[in-house]
C-alpha cells in the first residue's frame, strides 16, 4: 500500500547545497539548471555571498554585465572581500562606467599597492579616460612586479597602441603569439 512505501521526495537542499549543485550543473553545460539553483540559493538565504558570486560569474561569462555587477556588488557587500571589489571594478569597466571603476581600483590599490590585476584594470580605465601618463605608471609598476606576465605584456601593447605606437604594439603581440599561439586576447587585439 502507499502508506507502507518510503517517502522518495527529493532531499531539501540548503542554500550552499544549491550553490554546489548549480556549479556542477554549470560545469556540465546546464545553464538554466545552474541559474535555477543560484536563484533558489539566494531565495533560501539572502546573505549567501557564494550564491551571488557564482551567479555573478555565470552572468559575466554570458555577457550579462549589469546582472553580474549587481550580484558581485551584493557578494562584496556581504563579505568585504577585496577580490570581489576587483571583479566589480572590472564589470564597471565592461559597462564603460570608468569613474566608478577607478574609485574602486584606487581603494584596492591603497590597500594592496602590489596588486597586478588592480594595476592593470586601473591602467585600462586610465587609457579609456585618455590619462596615458598615469596609465603608463600603472603598467610599469605591474611590469616591475610581474615582468614575465602575459597579461602585463598585453596591457603594455594596448598602452602602446593608445599612445600611437602601433608598430611597438604589434611587436609585443607577435612575441606573445610566438609564446602562446592560442592566446585569444592577443588574437582579438591584433585585429584592432
Structural class: mainly alpha
Evaluate the radius of gyration: 21 Å
pLDDT < 50 runs, ≥5 residues: none
- Number of continuous helical runs: 11
Give the rounded overall mean pLDDT. Answer: 87
Strand content: under 5%
Largest sheet: none
As a percent range, the share of helical residues equals: over 70%
- The H/E string reads HHHHHHHHHHH
Counting DSSP E segments of at least 2 residues, the number of strands comes to 0
How far is the first residue's CA from the last residue's CA?
A: 71 Å
Shape: elongated
Description:
It is a single chain. The chain is mainly α and 192 residues long. 74% of the residues lie in helices and 0% in strands. It is built from eleven helices and no strands. The protein has helices spanning 15-27, 31-44, 49-61, 65-79, 82-94, 98-111, 116-128, 132-145, 150-162, 166-179, 184-190. α1 (15-27) runs antiparallel to α2 (31-44), α2 (31-44) packs antiparallel against α3 and α5 (82-94) runs antiparallel to α6 (98-111). It starts with 14 loop residues before the first helix and ends with a helix. The mean pLDDT is 87.
Amino acid at each position: 500500500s502507499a502508506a507502507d512505501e518510503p517517502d522518495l521526495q527529493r532531499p531539501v537542499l540548503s542554500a550552499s547545497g544549491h550553490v554546489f549543485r548549480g556549479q556542477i550543473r554549470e560545469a556540465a553545460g546546464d545553464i538554466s539548471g545552474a541559474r535555477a539553483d543560484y536563484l533558489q540559493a539566494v531565495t533560501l538565504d539572502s546573505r549567501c555571498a557564494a550564491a551571488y558570486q557564482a551567479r555573478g560569474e555565470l552572468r559575466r561569462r554570458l555577457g550579462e554585465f549589469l546582472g553580474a555587477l549587481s550580484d558581485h556588488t551584493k557578494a562584496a557587500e556581504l563579505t568585504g572581500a577585496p577580490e570581489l571589489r576587483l571583479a566589480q571594478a572590472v564589470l564597471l569597466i565592461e559597462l564603460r562606467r570608468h569613474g566608478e571603476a577607478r574609485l574602486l581600483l584606487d581603494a584596492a590599490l591603497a590597500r594592496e599597492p602590489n596588486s597586478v590585476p588592480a594595476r592593470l584594470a586601473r591602467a585600462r580605465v586610465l587609457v579609456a579616460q585618455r590619462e596615458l601618463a598615469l596609465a603608463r605608471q600603472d603598467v610599469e609598476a605591474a611590469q616591475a612586479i610581474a615582468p614575465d606576465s602575459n597579461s602585463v605584456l598585453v596591457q603594455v601593447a594596448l598602452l602602446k597602441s593608445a599612445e600611437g605606437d602601433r608598430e611597438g604594439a604589434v611587436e609585443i603581440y607577435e612575441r606573445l603569439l610566438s609564446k602562446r599561439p592560442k592566446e585569444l586576447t592577443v588574437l582579438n587585439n591584433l585585429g584592432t
